[in-house]
Design goal:
The complex is a heterotrimer of chains A (about 400), B (about 425) and C (about 270). Chain A is α/β, with parallel strands linked by helices and about 400 residues long. Classes of the chains: A alpha/beta (about 400), B alpha/beta (about 425), C alpha/beta (about 270).
Chain lengths: ~400, ~425, ~270
């Protein structure tokens, strides 16, 4: 059966709460700041939303239910998205359907986490059962070690070099230098990238994100509601979601996008060449490279060449991770699943300020998350178009 | 090839002894199957009873058919190393102290891919042999080794973390008079132990073989009577800080059923030596060994109990002896839990009837001291917790695993012989 | 008369003209005990377990639990210890009249012979020679065989070889002479038993045990400081613990001796 389009639903009021390397505040504080930010942008009070979607790792012992009482909300639709880097795409898909069906009128989607000293280690230690049983006892490298292994394999199979990955990181740093809220403020050269200290070979320092505190939010509502309130907004023209794809691959060299990308473009009525800017999930450059391939910007195994031949900066051929992405702006826990989505919303509504891509109208945002054992299990993507 | 480890320098008296840290301790219940298999050095994974699919990581339901009947079985310990990394940064204190740490992804011939520890001689893309060993936390972990043995292979620092190799270590054998003591001392020295201390009870009572033992290079005989709390404490005061491997071979055995003598004279002595002796040694030597679990090349590594295979099940013709062995087995489990904080392993070496005076009338097979010593060295090199030495011990263990109640009835009639 | 005697004794003890000599070894876990073939039950070694020492196990007191055999350390053998004495009246330590624990002692010095020969024997001839010098052994005396064996330690004390222990002791004839003809109360040695180390090879085996206990007499073993006793004139005190049906008991053995001119030491 053909999927229903998301007609009449829009995203609006993007808000990014500026990230901090470490924070003494709680996840509740960060989520409250993001929620207030998005509500302020729309001129709404907390009681005026009736849908609430939350993604966070560090709310314990609370859940989004407890958060409604904590924040004084009274939603008739509530969602919790425990999908890390895929949380933005998944939250948006669900919220859009809820609004479309009338289960909620205005849904606030928020994501974020705090980052205390040692909280990353504690987060890892309870992340998943397979990781606890079969990954952490082996060097406890966390995601770094997992992605080192698949980067190693990717390099062997497709002839990628460190420089190819470096081009992605360097371009994102260029973009980040325009973003006043990015944590990374120093220029990065390819030389810096190649000579950085090793973290988990072949990965070095600039292959890895910096965990930080931060939060992101946006609103999902009917287009007429946004127009009535005078809010710049974007339509959702296509989406995909997949979990545990290609489980028989001995090591992850492709994600679920490769199963579903055709459907994504068919639904949105466009092709990769029509995309004005791309926000991939960039916990490591190799994952962005896989997304170039799996989302059809190049063939499988052509990622290295694509990275060499494409200018990925804001002013380039394919502006990519225009806020600097997680690699240069920081990884705010589950907020990392929203960073590309919120930035894309700013871009296609022409409100991206210093990182604005000229003429940006159509953006592809992809998500990837949850290293349950040896690979990321969740993948998803959406295509947004600015509403005129 | 691996660089051979050098004998450790003398301890710097001004340097603080490194506090042992452990790799992650938490596992799911299912994953403890790997730990149980590692205790015996077996490479086992869950196999689905329904469809035969091999599972990894450990699961509660089959990844192919959702059957919940998953059984740990020996699987082919071979595969290909498809990806490698060397971790240089880890938030975990144990690994931080040991970086860089090499791990890899191996695609098993049996099916699944595993992330595993990598021996330094494993080359990317090569065929590898897999082992399941206990790490310092006492949990089963998988490690890939080169398919063919390489020079000084056992000296690989990551592998040595999983083993209790006697090389460069100082060993205390608690009973010099025991019939197995000469073979044990010789085996330890041949395995590279730097010193073998032997405990001698009742120096006023001469015994044959003392001179030959004392004349061995690297052997030193010191007073120790495991039935005397003060003696155990005094020796621990002397050498507790340099006992890296303790082998408790002290044993008192007298044949007989519980009605034969009808008293508790021998049973009391059996408990004094076999159970309370272990307890005294544990209280005297355990804390220092636990504290020295990360003390360099000759860190404290293992505690070995030589137990009767009939610790598992009572042979009524040696009723009280078996009971004392069961008590020792029970205590060894507590000792294992106590020493875990130092990453020090407790290995129980189970033997059937041994080739000595007290088993003289029994028919073969009997375990010769040299065979016992070989099993012990092999067990230490593999870092095992449970070693069954000889046909009788293996047979008892297998039957016990199948059905303890059936075995009780069988041994109730067979007795020890 | 008796009151005056005790008063005089008390005064003599106070002023040192009567000395108290300790004939007891210290109870020590490592002190040798008799060793039997391993299929027999063995004499328990002395063991001491600290129960508390002003610490978390008992803040204000220190004490030990001890383990011991009736026949560990310096000890008393009652008639019931041996099969020949099993039917003797008052054969157990709790039944013996207390007066039997104090009495005169004759000390026969065999130290020269024992120094020459580990298996040195106390013979009737040696007894006769001693009596020629010191008079006939009075009835109901303790006879102590001085060998200076107590000065040995470690393996030299039991002096165990493949054919068993080698230490001095009385011949069957000598012990019969003492028991049957002199009517002694008991016999004491510095070795681990009243019999010689090779005593099992006499007829009867273990003649001291056989004859002494069969006649309702007592044994003392593991004595020391016998070299500080005069050949005659010492009073011995050897009171066993009052153990119900006990066949022996660890002892604190004391001897009262007149102060000697050539030995100014007090007690040891």
């Amino acid at each position: 059966m053909a999927r229903q389009p998301y007609d009449g639903v829009v995203l609006a009021a993007p808000h990014t709460e500026p990230y901090q390397r470490y924070s003494t505040e709680t996840a509740h504080w960060w989520l409250a700041r993001a929620l207030k930010g998005t509500l302020d942008a729309a001129g709404l009070g907390p009681r005026e939303i009736d849908g609430f979607s939350v993604a966070s790792f560090t709310l314990f012992p609370d859940t989004p239910v407890g958060l409604t009482q904590h924040l004084g909300l009274c939603p008739r639709w509530l969602d919790s998205i425990p999908m890390g880097g895929a949380s933005g795409v998944v939250a948006l898909r669900r919220a859009a359907r809820a609004v479309q069906a009338g289960d909620a009128d205005i849904v606030a989607c928020v994501a974020g986490d705090t980052n205390r000293i040692d909280s990353f280690r504690k987060l890892l230690s309870s992340f998943s059962r397979f990781a606890m049983d079969a990954a952490y006892p082996y060097g406890y490298g966390g995601p770094n070690a997992n992605f080192a292994l698949l980067t190693d394999r990717y390099m062997q199979d497709y002839g990628a070099t460190r420089s190819d990955f470096g081009r992605i990181a360097v371009a994102q740093r260029d973009n980040a230098l325009r973003n006043p809220h990015a944590l990374m403020k120093k220029p990065l050269t390819l030389e810096d990238y190649l000579t950085a200290r090793p973290i988990a070979e072949p990965l070095a320092l600039f292959d890895c994100v910096m965990p930080c505190a931060g939060s992101e939010a946006l609103l999902v509502m009917r287009e007429d509601e946004a127009l009535r309130r005078g809010l710049p907004c974007a339509r959702l023209t296509g989406s995909i979601e997949r979990h545990n794809a290609f489980a028989d691959d001995p090591i992850q060299l492709r994600g679920g996008w490769a199963m579903d990308a055709d459907e994504l473009y068919a639904m949105a009525g466009c092709a990769p060449g029509d995309i004005d800017l791309l926000q991939t999930y960039d916990d490591y450059p190799v994952i962005s490279m896989m997304q170039f391939e799996d989302l059809g910007f190049c063939d499988k195994g052509e990622g290295p060449r694509f990275a060499r031949e494409t200018d990925l900066t804001i002013t380039g051929d394919l502006p990519h991770n225009t806020s600097g992405g997680q690699l240069s702006a920081g990884q705010a826990g589950a907020g990392g699943g929203f960073i590309g989505l919120v930035e894309a919303l700013r871009q296609v509504t022409g409100r991206a300020g210093p990182t604005q891509v000229a003429g940006a109208r159509r953006a592809l945002v992809s998500g990837f998350g949850m290293i349950n054992y040896d690979r990321g299990l969740c993948s998803g993507a959406v295509i947004l178009e600015g509403a005129q | 090839m691996t660089d051979p480890i050098s004998p450790p320098p003398k301890k710097n008296p001004q340097a603080r002894t490194r506090t042992p840290t452990l790799p992650p301790l938490t596992r799911s219940r299912a994953a403890l199957g790997l730990t149980a298999a590692a205790a015996e050095g077996r490479f086992m994974l869950q196999v689905c009873d329904g469809c035969g699919a091999v599972q990894y990581p450990p699961r509660d339901a089959c990844v192919q058919c959702l059957s919940t009947a998953l059984t740990w079985r020996d699987v082919t310990p071979a595969g290909r190393l498809i990806a490698t990394t060397r971790v240089h940064a880890s938030p975990d204190p144990y690994f931080r102290e040991r970086l860089p740490w090499r791990t890899g992804t191996v695609q098993l011939d049996a099916g699944p891919s595993v992330i595993c520890h990598l021996h330094g001689d494993c080359e990317s893309g090569a065929r590898v042999r897999l082992i399941n060993r206990l790490d310092k936390a006492g949990h089963g972990v998988i490690m890939a080794l080169p398919e063919e043995a390489t020079p000084n292979m056992a000296d690989d620092p990551q592998l040595r973390e999983m083993t209790a190799d006697p090389k460069h270590r100082r060993v205390l054998i608690t009973d010099a008079r025991a019939p197995d003591a000469p073979a044990l001392a010789k085996a330890m020295l041949e395995a590279g132990a730097s010193t073998v201390f032997l405990g001698e009870a009742e120096g006023w009572r001469p015994w044959p073989g003392r001179e030959a033992l004392a004349a061995m290079e690297g052997v030193s005989i010191l007073p120790l009577d495991v039935t005397d709390t003060s003696s155990a404490r005094e020796l621990a005061g002397e050498i507790g800080g340099k006992t890296d491997i303790l082998i408790n071979n002290a044993r008192f055995i007298r044949p007989g059923g519980m009605f034969d003598r009808g008293d508790t004279v021998f049973p009391g002595r059996e408990m004094e030596v076999n159970y309370l002796g272990l307890l005294r040694l544990a209280q005297a030597f355990g804390p220092a060994m636990r504290g020295r679990g990360a003390d360099g090349v000759n860190s404290a590594a293992a505690w070995v109990n030589i137990l009767s295979a009939h610790a598992l099940i009572n042979a009524p013709d040696h009723a009280t002896f078996c009971a004392s062995q069961a008590a020792a087995l029970s205590l060894s489990q507590a000792l294992r839990a106590e020493l875990r904080a130092g990453g020090v392993k407790v290995m129980n070496l189970y033997v059937g009837p041994t080739d000595d005076d007290w088993h003289q009338p029994l028919p073969p097979p009997k375990v010769a001291p040299a065979a016992l010593a070989r099993s012990l060295v092999a067990g230490l090199r593999d870092g095992l917790e449970e070693v069954h030495c000889g046909d009788v011990a293996r047979d008892i263990a297998e039957r016990w695993r199948r059905d303890p109640k059936v075995l009780e009835r069988e041994i109730g009639q067979e007795g020890l012989g | 008369m008796s009151a005056q005697l005790l008063e005089a004794l008390a005064a003599a003890l106070n002023d040192g003209s009567v000395e108290t000599v300790d004939l007891t070894h210290t109870l020590d876990p490592d002190f040798p005990v008799i060793v039997l073939p391993p299929e027999f039950g063995q004499c328990a070694r002395f063991r001491m377990e600290e129960v508390s020492a002003y610490d978390h196990r008992g803040p204000s007191w220190k004490w030990h639990n001890i383990t011991i055999s009736e026949h560990t350390g310096t000890h008393f053998d009652a008639p019931a210890h041996w099969i020949t004495g099993r039917d003797q009246p008052q054969g157990h330590v709790d039944e013996i009249a207390p007066g039997r624990f104090l009495g005169r002692a004759c000390v026969i010095d065999c130290s020269e012979g024992a120094a020459r020969d580990d298996d040195h024997e106390l013979t009737p001839e040696a007894i006769a020679a001693w009596e020629a010098a010191h008079g006939t052994i009075p009835p109901d005396s303790w006879v102590l065989m001085r060998t200076d064996w107590s000065k040995r330690s470690g393996a030299a004390y039991l002096n165990m070889r493949e054919d068993g222990a080698h230490s001095p002791g009385p011949t069957p004839e000598a012990i019969r002479l003492l028991v049957e003809e002199r009517g002694i109360r008991g016999f004491g040695t510095e070795t681990v038993g009243t019999d010689a180390g090779q005593g099992m090879h006499y007829t009867p085996p273990f003649p001291a045990h056989h004859t002494l206990h069969g006649a309702g007499r007592y044994g003392l073993q593991c004595l020391r400081n016998l070299d500080r006793l005069p050949p005659t004139g010492a009073v011995l005190m050897a009171a066993p613990l009052k153990i119900r049906h006990g066949t022996g008991s660890p002892l604190r053995v004391l001897a009262l001796v007149p102060r000697s001119t050539d030995n100014g030491e007090a007690t040891a």
